[in-house]
Amino acid sequence: MTIDEKLAALTKEIDEKRAQVAPLTQEVRDLAEKAESDEEFAAAKEKRAALDQLNDAIKQDEERANLYKQAIKGQEQPNPTAVKTAPVADERRAEINAAIRSKSGGQDIVIPRELLRAGAASDTPTTTGITSPDAAPTIPVDISYVPQREVQTVVDLKPFVNVFAAKSASGKYPVLKNVTDTLHTVGELEKNPALGKPQFSDVEWAVATYRGAIPLSQESIDDSAADLIGIVNANAQQLVRNTNNAAIATVLKTFPAKTIGSVDDLKTINNVDLDPAYTRAIVASASFYNALDTLKDGNGRYLLQDSITSPSGKTVLGIPVVVVSDTTFGAAGEAHAFIGDIKRAVLFADRAELTVRWVDNDLYGQYLRAGIRFGVAKADSAAGFFLTYTASTPTLSK
């Protein structure tokens, strides 16, 4: 098997392993959420260990693939720092004369320069040898025709919000408010007092359409060494995910703003400002997560702890953390986060999701159309806060 064939086989193996990561991650999350006994929790940990082994195997295969690529590309050899020159013409003439004198009684015989081997005085490998540029027309250039996708943030925020199937282009969605009333004390045979009525708030939503199309010539489909239609389809799915995340992030940024500069500020928001009835989660930008990752308690232990149920694998103050790119909440380098009950905070009206491909006879090609219809609205304005970390200190400090 040639090195090109080894690289192609290894690349296919890496793609197959990457395809197993998302289902296995979901399986770990499902097992952890349903775990109630020690045996079930142990099964979840075992499945998480299998996920870690799969990620390690992918990393090792990628390192091997890089070695194959370097071997195919080749390494330029450095030029010698010093080259020993050949004897000059006069020295060669002296050697020839010495040999002839031994045959002619010691009489010197002068040999004309033109009788010497042409170029003997400049017979230097670096100038007279054949190098790679000289042989360029005969040296093949290896080109890979299977593109590698740039690594980007792939967290999908849609599963974390309240998603319902919309049946029309707009409407209202009732959200039941938290119950604060209590039952009354009543004596024997006394008339029952009226119970507090459930209180609802209507969340208005409207569906918007997001769509686009790209034509593919039939020639490009037929002649492409890679699966061109599959590449464009995968790109369309990533566009859908990015669109969902951008719409959800826009709503999260409208929640009451809080500025923090220490872990005590974060604890105050979690313990006092946010109602205990809400489920906690933190959706953090990469810069905010980096600040969290440096937090330590009074004993020097990091507050960010491992968790098999958290999407990022970490929790802080017992709150699971979801990490998105900085540009989801702002500009690169800005530290922002949402803390609160994201499912009660955001309402996602899912109307339709389309990815259609069809043949156009006039163009001799195919059109790929991607379209989604959904609406996003703030459901409960008290369900969370939008945080900004101030860089007054190098890291969040206690």
From TrEMBL:
Its main location: virion. Residues 7-71 form a coiled coil. It holds the Pfam family Phage_capsid. Residues 148-375 form the Phage capsid-like C-terminal domain. It is found in: Virion. The keyword Coiled coil applies. Keywords: Coiled coil. NCBIfam families: major_cap_HK97. This is Phage capsid-like C-terminal domain-containing protein.
